[in-house]
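hey so u asked for the seq, here:
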Amino acid sequence: MSLLATIAAAEEGSHTLNELWFPAPIFGIAIFVVLSALAIVTFTFRDVANRHSDKAEAYAREHGASQQH
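ran it, C-alpha cells below
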C-alpha cells in the first residue's frame, strides 16, 4: 500500500460523530446563568471598603497614617 492510500483509509475509518450531552442552546444558557451568578457575587462586594470608613479613619488617626515615613 502506498502512503497516500494508507492516509486515506485511516481518515475514512476514524471519522466518528459524538453527540452533545444536551442541545447546543442549553450550553449557552448554562454559561449565561453561571456568569450572571458570578457577576452578582462580584457586585455584592462593590462597597466593602466604605462600610466601616469610620473605623478606618479612627485606625489611621490612632496609628499616625498622616505622617510621612
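The longest helix spans residues 24-44. The chain has a mean pLDDT of 81.
lmk if thats what u needed
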